[in-house]
Write a structure and sequence with these properties.
- It is a single chain.
- The protein is an alpha/beta fold.
- The protein has two domains: about 270 residues, 3-Layer(aba) Sandwich (Rossmann fold), CATH 3.40.50; about 190 residues, Rossmann fold (3-Layer(aba) Sandwich), CATH 3.40.50.2000.
- Helices cover about 40% and strands about 20% of the residues.
- The protein has 18 helices and 18 strands.
- The chain has a nine-stranded mixed beta sheet with strand order 3-4-5-2-1-6-7-11-12, sandwiched between helices. Strands 15-14-13-16-17-18 form a six-stranded parallel beta sheet, sandwiched between helices. A three-stranded antiparallel beta sheet has the order 8-10-9.
- Strand 9 and strand 10 form a beta hairpin.
- It binds adenosine-5'-diphosphate and alpha-D-glucopyranose.
- Alpha-D-glucopyranose binds next to helix 1.
- The site of alpha-D-glucopyranose has 14 residues, from helix 1.
Amino acid sequence: MSENHAGNHPVRVAFVGSECYPFIKTGGLGDVMYALPRALLRENCEVRVLMPYYACIPEKFKNNMSFRGSFMMDLTQDGRSFFVGIMETEMDGVIYDFIENRDFFDWGNPYTGLWEDIPKYCFFSKASLAVLNYLDWTPDVIHCHDWQAGLVPVYLRTEFATTPVGKAKSILTIHNLRFQGICSVDHLKYWTGLPDYLFDYSVFLIANNEANMFKGGLAYCDRITTVSATYAQEIQTDFYGEKLNGHLWYHRAKLSGIVNGIDVDLWNSRTDKLLPAVYSEEDVLEKKPQNKEALQARLGLFKDSSKFVLGLISRLTDQKGLDLINTVFSKMMNANTQVVILGTGDARYENAFRYYESVYPGQVCAYIKYDESLAHQIYAGADALLVPSLFEPCGLTQLIAMRYGTVPVVRETGGLKDTVEPYNEYTGEGNGFTFDYYNADLLLDAVERCRKVYREKKDNWNAIVKRDMEKDVSWEHSARQYMDLYRELAQ
Ligand code: ADP
Ligand code: GLC
């Protein structure tokens, strides 16, 4: 690895997380696990990504992996040993090590239910450290992501403290505090084999006989980061803290927010092979209508580029503010509006959107699937993208939308607040439409304000579109902030 920062040695970082695009992705965590390591390579960093070898990883990726070795590892309280296999591949300078074990990773998509996921990620966290030792690759920093890697900082300072990897520091990044890995104390004790003193209120314990994997990791890691400055503040409050706000407040000296970016090569309207018509900020006004009509044709909507097309690309869960949309859906519709929904999740939302599709044929499309290529076409073909979340640690869809000249309509929470500047009708500044309180009428008002500018103030609208496309949503700045943190810890 070259030394592009005079005199600085490359920092070695191991990423540990449960998903990573293109191998497996269910949401934004998969995007970050892909894009951030690549951005770090450009900052004089050596990166290895450790993740499970799920059966559901497509064969085309498995066929490119090579076997790096295997060993047996003790895991449970009663000393059961489990097989740990290592499959490896390299992509553009990042090394990916997949941890194989058929007892844990042979089913699920990749998640199943907590009862099975807890043993799965106990195994994964411990095996990650064992693999680093086995490969004789000692990182300066182990960068752990979400509760699934939450035990890494705990194992690192206990069972692995006197092994080579014990020299590393750890960062635990909160991508979503809603999911924490909660189970009975007995279950966690059994699957981790960790000593009794850790099952205390300062580490794993949250109630009588209830343990929380994320809580333990947050206590034991050297630094906690989350994916926007606003979310870092929000999670110290009752409303957003998911019952860990007291714990996070206690550990606030080591907590900070670093906003996510997106991979601007993967999300690039100038080169995107999935688009009917590629475009830049120079010709967006001419090419977006072409993408819009192609999208309308693909989805069976009335083909008319003058319609205002509102997109939603989301996991369909209560986090995403879908109750607000549901409350005002009919009021949001008019003859010149079309709505395109791409998402999967809770049946009640899937069915609600299917219902609206049946009520507004040719005007509403509810595409209840996970589909990367359609996502690209919606980002390019829609005029605006809705993200009215109840909470949003960062949110990537508004960043991708902006990059594609699609105007975000968001609630001012978490990363949405930090990345979307509200349009000011007096000065014409800003790059999206926002509302503050979690209230359906405020969402409706934001959509109406957005639509009004689209219809009645074309010059202002076109200026917003161009500003969105020019906004820096890359990882560059945030990757440097992570580098500063890694260097500080590596000293
Ligand atoms: P979260 O991680 O909470 O789901 P983010 O906004 O951070 O939300 O990231 C969501 C990512 O998943 C984006 O890359 C988005 O394009 C993608 N995505 C979500 N739902 C779908 C879907 N049904 N089909 C394709 N991509 C999707
Ligand atoms: C989580 C959050 C989302 C964030 C993503 C990546 O899934 O819900 O807001 O963008 O992680 O950090």
